[in-house]
Design brief:
The complex is a heterotrimer of chains A (173), B (638) and C (104). Chain B has 638 residues and is mainly alpha-helical. Chain B is 71% helix and 3% strand. In chain B, the strands form two sheets. A two-stranded antiparallel sheet of chain B has the order 1-2. In chain B, helix 18 runs antiparallel to helix 19. The chains are: A mainly alpha (173), B mainly alpha (638), C mainly alpha (104).
Amino acid sequence: MSIYQIVFYALAAFILGMALLAVTTRKIFRSAIWLLFTLIGVAGLYFWLNVEFIAAVQIIVYVGGIVVLIIFSIFLTEQSGKEMPKTTRGRAVAAALAVVAGFVLTYLLISQYGFYPVQEEFNSEVARIGTDMLRTDGEGFALPFEVVSVLLLAAMIGCIVIAIKPSKQKEHE
Amino acid sequence: MVYAQYVPLIILLPLLSFVVLGFWGKKSLKPMAGMVGTTVLLVSCALACYTAYQYFTLNGAYQPVIAIQGTWLEFTPTLSIDMGILLDPASVMMLVVVTFISLMVHLYSMGYMKQEERKGIFFAYLSLFTFSMLGLVISTNIFQIYMFWELVGVSSFLLIGYYYDRPSAVAASKKAFIVTRFADLGFLIGILILGFQAGSLDFQTIIERVTNTNSEQYANLVGTHYLGISLLTWALVLIFMGGAGKSAMFPLHIWLPDAMEGPTPVSALIHAATMVVAGVYLVARLFPLYHLAEGAQNIVMLVGVTSAVFAAIIACTQTDFKRILAFSTMSQIGYMMFALGVSGYGGESGLGFSASLFHLFTHAFFKSLLFLAAGLVIHVAHTNNVFEMGGMRKYAPVAHATFLIACLAIAGIPPFAGFFSKEEILTAAMYYSSTVYVLALITSGLTAFYMFRLYFLVFWHKEASVHSHHSEGCLSQKLPLVLLAIASILAGFVPFSQYVSADNKPFHAELHLSQAIAPVAVALLGISIAFALYKKESSKSDQFARAMGSLYLGARKKFYIDELYLFVTQKVMFNLIGRPAAWIDRNIVDGMVNGMAAATAGFSSAIKGLQSGRVQQYALYFFGGILALALIFLYIWK
Amino acid sequence: MNEIPVTHILFVSTGLFFIGMYGLFTRRNMISMLMSVELILNSVNINFVVFNKYLYPSRLDGIFFTIFIITIAAAEAAVAIAIIINLFRSHQSIDVDTASELRF
């Protein structure tokens, strides 16, 4: 067992353990923290896979952005101190059964297929990612890049519109 | 012979009058309603007489003429319902009778119904009835006659229930319709048997095929037996059941006395002269077949004799003016029926047939005269009970004179019309069986008795206790009385058997004076007994009634036939059949349907919980579905 | 270096995916449901990167997919928070069962 493998199995256990804690804990703030750790674990996995750029993006956007956003929303909806209600026994059992069945099926399929890796170097330098992002020929991703920009703009506007408080005039009507 | 040009008009003009008066008779045409109806009938009657003149001035055998025929409903190429006009001696004679009597009744109604609020409708109904009756008599096809049969029943229903604000009138019209409808059930089954076996619904074709004893149809009808009776007899008896219902023969006679709730002109037209003879006409139409099936003919005779005697006995005890006349009608129609029942076929032996139709002819005149005169007298006296009337001869002279003539005619006193026709019937009965002859003789004595009992009670008996200021009636009411009286006198002299006979060959009916003595003597006996008991007010009639004891009481109550029917329908049919059927309908049939609906509703409310509005549940179901589909597609269905 | 079979890495991502599904079905809180959705998206990201690196190393498609997914996940989380805040205003609670007006 090389260190390479030990690191992977440790990371895997960490990710799955934190995720389980995130979905089962009763206190919502703790759930957000376990989610934070899960996302950090996933970033660690990216580091282990040698895709550093993605790992960095993961930490910046997910951990630094989304989890913070979630924590802010917990505060905004005044939930931080309370305990969440326990889920009904029936629903928990049904969900667990369905999920376990799905997992077994999927993993069976995956292991039967047996993915065979290609023995080739994977070049994921940041420079290469940057060049490819703005290339307009066959291998370029300029179009999705522009589309995602538009989507971000739309999402920004949408969020503001949805979340805005109704104006004073409308309240008097 | 271009009959087709004008004969349809005879029938269609009253229909046109019905439509016109039906639409416009309520408001715009109301004052003219009587004029419209009467004029139309005048034209129809003139055309009918012209047709009779054209038809009967042939020499030799009278051929049935089909003026018009058209296929209406085709079941198979050989079996179809046609509509057509058949002219043969019987139908031409009936055309004349129906149009003439209807004309007289229209004329009378113009005066009788003058103050009536709904007289437009009344004349419309009268025209409808005339159209239906005329259609009935010229039918070529047994189904056509059935259709017009029902139409006549409807018109009778409408006219009996004309005074719809009187519950008794409404009940009477329902009773008439239901009893005749029930009889028509038998009629329909008979039609179906006959039509199916004979392969055709046309009268001439049926008669041709079945009377030919070599034909296949005859063999089928006579050979097939059901419960020991041949199909032919079954068919004819069932058809006769329909005729018996319409003609108020025993035991389907219960509707006729109640039908007197209708206005008097209606009674005169429908329940005396025309509709009630439809049964006789039907048997006459199918007479060659009845002659073949002796059993059926015997039943006709038995029913006729029974009705004649039965009605005569009851009529001796009744107190309502029109009901006495109603039972008299039933008795006379019984005469016509049994005359058909005793008749032979061909030449002299067909005397019964000719006599029956001759009596139909003369009876129409004097019976409608009796009813119309009764209408006048009832109007003057303001009561229907003959014991409350008396001495009416001073207040209704024209009615008195014509009524007397009609009574003499019905009693069979020469030289009035009834004598000749009754003579022939009695002669035919004598040739057949002496029992029937004796019964018929006794009945004619009873007829004379009760008719003159009526006459003396109304016009003599006592001084008029009802001093009314009503005049007798206007000219339009008196003129028909006079015309009908003249007809009652003269109609007997028509050499009827020269025109109408069973095989359409004219023959000479001998009038044997020796045979004529017995009926006349019996009639005079009846008249004198009535004179003794009723001319002057006395208690002799009551003593006589008490002496008769239970027979008198039974006859007074019409021998409890109505009560028997009521018992059977209410206690037996309603309780044993009606109630269970209703229970089954409500609980089982409806219960099944309701149960299905309830089951569906229950099922739907059970599964509506699936749509709870909770997103997580939807997600769970969604994922479960995907899982299931994945399993199916991967492992089960390759 | 490649002694770990690809299927083991895929085990991690599959496990993460179904843990996220469990959280989606079970949690009453709308914000918790959002967290579970983030877990699912992360598992998909891992899959893309793994397939790209081990099966198609000559191209960068998987990397780019991952980048865009992360971007879109961020935008979607923002919109989701906006909706949750709106629902909180009208129902006074973020229990997802109170927002069940679309029932039978």
